[in-house]
Amino acid sequence: MKSFMAKKLLMGNEAIALGAIRAGVSVVTGYPGTPSTEVLETMAKHNDGSIYVEWSVNEKAALEVAAGAAYAGARAMVTMKQVGLNVASDPLMSLNYIGVKGGMVVLVADDPGPISSQTEQDTRHFGKYAKIAVFDPSTPEEAYTMIADAFDYSEKYGRPVILRPTTRVCHSCSSVEMLDDLPVKEAEGFEKSSRWVIFPKLSYENKIKIEESLKIMSDDFSEYERNFIAGNGKKGIATGGVSYSYVSETVQNSQADCKLLKVSTMPFPRKLALEFLKELDEVLVVEELDPVIENELIYLCGLYNLNIKIYGKLTGHIKNAGENTVDSVSAAVDAFLGTDQGSSGRDSADNNEFSNSIGNLVTSEPPELPVRPPVLCAGCPHRASFFAVKEATRGMNAVYSGDIGCYTLGNAMPLNMVDTCLCMGAGITVAQGLHRVEPDRINFAFIGDSTFFHTGIPGIINAVYNQTDIIVVILDNSTTAMTGHQPHPGLGKTMMGNVSDVISIYEVVSALKVSKIVRANPFDTEAAKAAVNAVINEKGVRVILYEAPCIFVTESEEPYVVDTEKCTGCKVCINKLGCPAIEMDGRKAKINPTLCTGCGICAPLCKFGAIGGKCND
Prior knowledge:
The protein is of the alpha/beta class. It is built from 18 helices and 23 strands.
């Protein structure tokens, strides 16, 4: 009798983590960032103690730690989102020239949309640029087994590889069959050799080897079971990643003949693609985010003089930004195959509407949802910090540079306290550039505690070294709030559950020789404003350290209430703070007790004394 393995309902990120454990990973590092965060968290949750897991201070550090483990022959994985790869790009580019001994997977979660990112990047381009193989899973089930393949290929070629799940693969859930752990050899340890020291001569020699191995990989991937051709006909559809799931569902429901190419890897499997292109008249390419597969097919058609029409993002038949959806893909595929509503049964020779037009697809969109912009939570200490700085600098010629984190939301009205936001750690350095052009303006730079450890410290050093007049406001809320409250060096807790020495932000900043440091609790509005006044007229790099925990890592106080007898409906409390717990009930202000955390910064704003007293008073 056939035996069946147990199945589990898993999120894609959970499946990736369990797949890595099955593949024998020994060291896992990363920096939190949606949509990748749950991979490392799941790894820590299911760790039996045999795997070393850490949240690193940034992606560059994480990749370098994992590289060291792979040098010693261990299987290692590093996790990040697509913008995190920008931070880790320096070591990654060099690492491919050096190579690894143990398998090393760089998990980079791409974010089409983008849903929670500054950019909409396609990591397949980065893989091509860095000359590194990329694995592109289409479902959580495939991601579970594909990561073991990624480790195998990494060890086969002695180079790091990238696993590139996109948001819908990371965060969708599927029933995944749990397989037996794979046999993995023990790490042999680090062996001293000149191969680990990168010099120009070695780089030159290894570049030649890399180029040769890319050709071999392309042929190898043409035989890889997750790259395949299905179906037949004069029309073909080429796809990969989560878009394959959408395409295959549509094609299965179609009565039209169609040849399908699934591409799960880069380098591009050219031999397989040439087999796919045989006897085709036209091809629709469906992919996220950029026309990577499309460009490869166009190149092959040109190289081999194939008279085949290629449609996709470049022709406007597939949208060139945002996520693909089941509906958008179905509309494109049905129109391409001539099976959309109203065209069923038409002969493909008579269906020239698709091939003769560009951007002709108008997909039916659902009704627009009400606009619900993200806001700082009720009781967020960042709101109190922004409000204090805004009040203290009212009427001054000031610029407020922001950073990546919850506090980016300080740009929204009524606070309007984030004038720039580029990338993590850039608020401090952008402020320095602004000051060099307009030295008479006051430049504030806001940065959170986790971001301070991530890339904020070099910016402060740069400002001190170059004697720049800026005010750095560090918003210490005792967590990495935006990505799910992960620990960082300022908390004295590691991902392995160990207690470590707390790295004091105050002491680090003091050691950097800034001209002045002031600490304050932002919920004490007067003290918070006094902190600004204490540094505003000083010179050099001044630091305000606002310290108050995120509402999700501390106990809430009893909610405040509005005395409707005293409330005049002036809306000052709403118009100045923008707290989601304060709303209008007719002509009177009202505090929603389910949202209010009792922070109290609203009470002093009411000159009529209408806010105060708590629900149980």
